[in-house]
DNA sequence: CTGCAAATGTGTAAAATTTACACAAAGTAG
DNA sequence: CTACTTTGTGTAAATTTTACACATTTGCAG
């Protein structure tokens, strides 16, 4: 990181940075879209929902689900709209990640796209509008997406990996009732690591946010595990302030 | 977090989610801007650069520095442009944080704004274009900004607090050569906590990214401290992968 | 020159956390 | 009833974090 004090900045070109009505309405060159990285978890693999691009330039490439934001629509609402259209589900975990606005990212013109990721419980949904081969892909096999969607996907996946370690997101990918084994499989799939079973359990029990449902798994060909759910309301009340400088 | 499997989604209203040229160019209702939260560090206080809003509706309120993104300009470039205009500095630390797009966030029309924060070394710059009372404010005293700028500011400040603990950003706020005391003051100011001096030193020396310059402070009315700089190139080569689930 | 004020520089012991690791019990399938 | 698979559990060692005190260096006032 370097510093270049520069007395020669182009001060003359600066207009007052006020945005007035006329200016807003005449700015008609930038379109706004949202793209959603929709994650699911099935058969111990982390999945992402993709669709075939229907732009010729990207024929045969997969792409994320997205759409233009409507003029009278909040950005978050646009993302929810896409999720609902495709999965039929409401009230999903949804997090804005980054806005991608390279000038030439979209061949159809200047389109700035706000990227979100969402976590859905694969058992609880049925895909809607099955056009363009909409379906779930293993995250490991996601390469060479259309547009700049590979970069968007990578950014969102990295964010998820970070975030899931610090916040109780992961439960959104699981059934309401889950075993500790399922929870561990989830973390292993998201983070791409193997974890020690005893230490994993110890850690979660120590956090004390799991509610023991006094139920056990059914239809497993071995000793069934106990089922738990996550105690969101207890979690909300916690106020941990974490100071731990470390690069 | 609840789940509402919903077979009744409005599938009929869905059009194919392709964005075609005509559509992009006819979407002329959304303007795109950037807003910058510019942080500085002076006299052991974290500061932010604000300007008086020149919209009547917000008279006398402070606001962030921002401008519309030009049709042929990357979003990041727009943010850099503002920084350069105002501080004369180039090559600043700049991080995109979040995009704010509530329908009515701007009285002049629909304006979606991409928020950034930047870290600058206050000694190394002179403010440019001193219109509208542009100047530095203590972050503690920042309240009731114009537009939704308070929310933007809070989001960016929170992000900085998080980020500075995990990445070597803070050095961008300090002179090239700094003492450990200055570094500790910086962290204390950003995080709003007191830290143990011996443990703070121990931690930074253990990371082993500080280069001892064999120089000492001058013009201090007490025993001078040694000066260091941060070893960015060594830091870049490190590949720490951190697994530590904890909410 | 002396003494005072202020901040630097340094180590250790206790506490807390993290890691590695093994065996008995519960269920299913044949 | 046997073999197989996975659950459920504890402890000792290693590591990391925390709390804490004193001698040293400099500037400054007298």
Brief rundown of the structure:
Helices cover 27% and strands 25% of the residues of chain A. Chain A folds into two domains: 30-173, Nucleoside Triphosphate Pyrophosphohydrolase, CATH 3.90.79; 178-238, Orthogonal Bundle (Arc Repressor Mutant, subunit A).
Number of helices of chain A: 6
CATH third-tier fold name of the largest domain in chain A: Nucleoside Triphosphate Pyrophosphohydrolase
Q: Please provide the count of β strands of chain A.
A: 10
Shape of chain A: globular
Tell me the radius of gyration of chain A.
Answer: 22 Å
Low-pLDDT runs of 5+ residues of chain A are 1-18
Oligomerization state: homodimer
Structural class of chain A: alpha+beta
Query: What's the CATH class label of the largest domain in chain A?
Result: Alpha Beta
Structural summary, described in words:
The structure is a homodimer of 247-residue chains. Chain A is of the alpha+beta class and 247 residues long. The first copy, chain A, has two domains: 30-173, Nucleoside Triphosphate Pyrophosphohydrolase (Alpha-Beta Complex); 178-238, Winged helix-like DNA-binding domain superfamily/Winged helix DNA-binding domain (Arc Repressor Mutant, subunit A, Orthogonal Bundle). Chain A has six helices and ten strands. In chain A, strand 1 (31-42) and strand 2 form a beta hairpin. The two termini of chain A are 17 Å apart. The interface between A and B is large, with 94 and 96 residues. Chain A binds a DNA duplex (30 and 30 nucleotides) through helix 5.
């Amino acid at each position: 990181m370097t510093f270049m004090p520069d007395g020669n900045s182009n001060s003359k070109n600066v207009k007052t940075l006020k945005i007035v009505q006329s200016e807003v309405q005449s700015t008609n060159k930038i379109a706004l879209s949202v793209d959603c990285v929709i994650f699911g978890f099935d058969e111990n693999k982390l999945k992402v929902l993709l669709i075939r691009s229907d732009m010729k330039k990207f024929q045969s490439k997969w792409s994320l689900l997205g759409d233009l934001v409507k003029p009278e629509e909040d950005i978050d609402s646009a993302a929810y709209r896409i999720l609902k259209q495709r999965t039929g589900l409401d009230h999903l975990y949804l997090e804005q990640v980054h806005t991608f606005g390279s000038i030439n990212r979209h061949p159809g013109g200047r389109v700035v796209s706000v990227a979100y990721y969402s976590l859905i419980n694969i058992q609880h949904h049925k895909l809607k509008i099955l056009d363009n081969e909409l379906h779930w892909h293993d995250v490991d096999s996601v390469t060479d997406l259309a547009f700049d969607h590979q970069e968007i996907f990578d950014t969102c996946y990295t964010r998820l990996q970070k975030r899931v370690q610090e916040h109780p997101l992961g439960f959104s990918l699981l059934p309401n009732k889950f075993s500790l084994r399922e929870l561990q499989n989830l973390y292993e799939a998201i983070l791409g690591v193997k974890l020690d079973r005893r230490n994993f359990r110890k850690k979660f029990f120590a956090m004390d946010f799991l509610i023991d449902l006094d139920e056990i798994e059914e239809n497993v060909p071995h000793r069934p595990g106990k089922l738990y759910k996550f105690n969101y309301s207890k979690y909300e009340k916690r106020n941990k302030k974490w100071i731990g400088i470390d690069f």
